[in-house]
Write a structure and sequence with these properties.
about 150 residues, alpha+beta, Alpha-Beta Plaits, 4-stranded antiparallel beta sheet, 5 helices, 4 strands, about 20% strand, globular
Length: about 150
């Protein structure tokens, strides 16, 4: 019997609309758990998640039957609705239109978990845009500043 076995580790990061500092630290554990449920329902387990007041990082194992665009549509749409219902003061919450996704190998998984877990400390020295530019350079992705932020 033939079988298809995959392990597609993906590092995804995206910010709030216009990088507004709106994600309360108090809801992060529940938000990450909620997003984890969305990922599980799409057979793409969330392996690590962390962030700051204006963006998040995820490490997922992408399902062999899902596209990253379908997963991210569900994650961003459903978590945005969840956040707005969670607290009236978050009624204007929105994620940025796009996202950044990078494949990683198994040998880099533990380092990425640590990186994601220490986002607050990391962003005392590096802002989100500089962080993304560094990833784009690292992965050899060409970009146009006019179009990547929204």
């Amino acid at each position: 019997m033939a079988s298809t076995l995959t392990k597609l580790l993906i590092h995804i990061t995206f910010s709030t609309k216009n990088r507004i500092a709106i994600i309360p630290e108090s809801i992060e554990p529940d938000l990450y758990s909620y997003i984890g449920g969305i990922c599980r329902s799409m057979d793409s387990p969330l392996l690590a998640m962390g962030g700051t007041v204006d963006h998040v990082h995820m490490m997922i194992s992408l399902s062999k039957t899902q596209s990253i665009s379908a997963l991210m549509l569900e994650v961003k749409r459903d978590s945005s609705k969840w956040i707005k219902l969670r607290d009236e003061s978050l009624e204007a919450f929105a994620w940025q239109d796009g996202y950044f996704a990078f494949s990683i190998g198994e040998s880099a998984a533990n380092a990425l978990r640590k990186y994601i877990a220490h986002q607050r400390e990391h962003h005392r020295a590096v802002d989100f845009r500089d962080e993304v530019r560094e990833f784009l350079r690292k992965y050899g992705i060409e970009w146009d500043e006019r179009y990547i932020w929204e």
